[in-house]
# Entry
Amino acid sequence: MNLVFTKNQFALAAVAAAGAAGLLAMPAPASAGDKSSGTYVTGDFHNHTTCSDGSISMQKLVKKATDTADTPWGLDWFVQAGHGGNGNRNCTLAEDESLGTPAYPYTGQGPTTTWTDSIGAANLKGLNGGVGGNGNMWRWQSIQEYQYPILEYLARLRDQPLFIGVESVSAGHEHVSTSVITGQMPKSIDRGRLPTKPGYTPLGNANALAQWEYCFDRNDTDTSRGNTVVGGTIGNNWNCSVTGSANAADPSWNATAQKLIPAGGTGTGTRGHLKTVEAMKWMAEHHPNGSYYVPSHLERAGPFNPDGNNGFNIEHLRDFNNAAPKSAFGFETQPGHGASSDRGEYFPKRNNIGGVLVDSVGGTTYGGTGVYGAQVGGVWDALLGEGRNFWFFASSDWHNRGIFGPDDRRSTQDFYPGEYQRDFVMVRDTGGRGRDDDRRGHDKPHGGDELTPRSIVDGLRSGNSFTTSGQLIDRLAFVACASYPRGRSTPALDAVGNAVVEALAVAAAVQNTDVDHDECATMGEKLVVRPGAEIIVSVVVRDPAGTNYSPYAFPNPSLAQVGIKQPLNKPVLDHIDVIRGMVSGYKSPSDPLQYAGEWPRDWLTNPSLANVPTAAKNPTAAVIKTFNGASWKSAGGDFRRMTFRLPGTVSTSQYLRLRGTNLPPSVPHETDANGNPLPDLVTNASNVANLAIPCNDAACPDHLAVNNGQKYVSYDVAAWSDLWFYSNPIYIEVKGSTLVAGVK
# Structure
């Protein structure tokens, strides 16, 4: 948004930021930026229905994720994404009459009804009429013929931006949140009448996503080319070749399927990874602006296994980003399953690799975040230290409530999309430009801007986003601006510096947008400066008053350990850390010591960066500033402002990022003396011997794990007790220093 203030508007913002009446005469800075207007909107792109291994229908999950009546946490946008491969149940069938619609009425069968019992086995397409004749439908058919049409219908019916993705079972690895949006939610769906009787014919399609799933999902072993039967020509007749690749000359190529089907056994992981790189090349060739590929809970399955299908090492993330930088632009290192007996479903000895039980990478989560994102100086900082566009995301990974029903607010497994974790993404009004037939009007949450699959994916790709858990914050303006000696910079920045930048940040946070100024940059952007520049950094957040979406009002047991009485459903932001790292440029695959390396398998017992391979760390990354109630200032209402200058003048390219939490440093079992998150093993109910934080309030729920008659913090109470937010970085490129090559 072009934040061009009148003199009075700017002065008032500056007064709010600086509290100095003398600033009223200050001139407004010129704004020569070229950003279109935009707003931070919330969404989720990884969750499950009965089409894969979820517990509820498409209709019910959409309602739970986006409604603001039945569920108060309604998201602004939503991507429904189940596992690739195949599924047995017809997720388009609703649970009850309340979810019925004219086009998809309640039939009495329900979403656990099989495809065979609802549409008939004769309608299952592909190899063996589904999967082995057992009534499972190949995911490509489910996406193309059933999931997309009902989602388009619901998007029109509810006037909300919805689209289809998939949690791909990645060849050579584990799981990935992905989509190809081409064809989905075209402009034409804004016109015309909805049906008033059963049956809906979509105006758009998810053909491109269905093809990608057929071609590249490890669990999709269909060989029909998306046709009715193998060897037939009625259907899609897909070919999965990539221009410039070996294709038919590749030993893994299956001529009947017209796709890569790597052999199992020794080398499975290596061959699978090569297929996944081909998947990235396909996206880059066919849908460079209409796709994304974000590894899910990527630490969970342990390190990469060259002979199996396990996790991701840093070299694989680099390979993906190199092959398709516009699609492979981040990772989901803050996983879902936040209320599980093992937070995020990460735990020691989880994975069998070559007959040896191996931990999830890092052994567990750290404040609900995997070690790749949580460890300062670790994998994420190593990627940012190259100057890559590689961003931090979170998701719900909704499946079920564990021992509770889907309408219960308690959980021993998952939270609904938006209930606990959410991605705040800057989505801009494109004004009709650059659409791949995917426009969807939606003006309810963001003052007239359009939310479309394309604008949402563009927002995710931009890196102008942040994630939160437990509604810890709901507004963030994070900006870095250049200041030069008098006469060499924008006059307003030269004249008043910190106050001007802070005023811009306050105004942006209040308006839920970002700053557009030639001498400034925000998350996902780079600020190009001359040597000798001073960098002014301003952070403004809103710590919302009132309650969050936790069902519990008793005092936070983790904070009770340090004498703080704070209701679980009324968290308070304790502090914000500013983390800085230096940029040294892209690592070359020809230098394996700099490019590749496995995170130490003994991290739980020996958590030292000294033991992390050079390729997987950035030793220059460190917390350089911490703000809390003693050092930040009010910006009115629930807004907090904090502004500082980097020491001296900058001569080296670098980046800044933020994290924040409701927990002060030195909370036993939660944070160390420096405020870093500690391993979550002490709240994981799978091993009651490890439990360490008692829950003594009379309102502590009965489903908590118990050891020797004592209730302990675990399951959903553990998640609501321990909240974090993470921002994506701002890059600062110094002319004559290392280029930040991956970011505009």
About this structure: Confidence is low (pLDDT under 50) at residues 1-32, 432-449. The longest helix spans residues 139-158. Residues 7-31+472-677+722-734 form one domain.
